[in-house]
């Protein structure tokens, strides 16, 4: 049991660091997306077109922001579970989530069995 606790300490630390990193990255992307947005009603200049092809496109930025947002949400959710002592417990069946699974995916909300069942249901 002591080993499980050790792992949790590490996971908690890395999740805290990740949360900070993701929040910063989100801010950076938000600024970038603002900078990439052309003025409404303006005719795109040759200079702008050149920038647009060089830099990240608006769609690409939106996709990245979406992924980041989701990761940040999952990370914060996992951290909040530490606070209430529910970290590493499957949200569906209440069983402890496999340690090896938590190592690879510390934000996991379900154990492997439930994840499979739930994703099958979602896919149907
Ligand atoms: Zn489960």
Write a brief caption for the model.
The protein has 124 residues and is an all-alpha fold. 71% of the residues lie in helices and 0% in strands.
What's the number of helices?
A: 5
Shape: elongated
β-strand amount: under 5%
Element order, helices and strands? HHHHH
InterPro entries: Znf_DskA_TraR
Domain Zinc finger DksA/TraR C4-type: 85-114
Keywords: Metal-binding, Zinc, Zinc-finger
Organism: candidate division WWE3 bacterium RBG_19FT_COMBO_53_11
Detailed description of the structure:
With 124 residues, the chain is mostly helical. The chain has 2 domains: 1-84; 88-124, no CATH class. The chain is built from 5 helices and no strands. The protein has helices at residues 2-36, 46-54, 58-83, 99-104, 112-123. Helix 1 (2-36) runs antiparallel to helix 3 (58-83). The protein starts with a helix and ends with a helix. 9% of the residues are buried. The structure holds zinc ion. Zinc ion binds at residues 90, 92-93, 95, 110-111, 113-114.
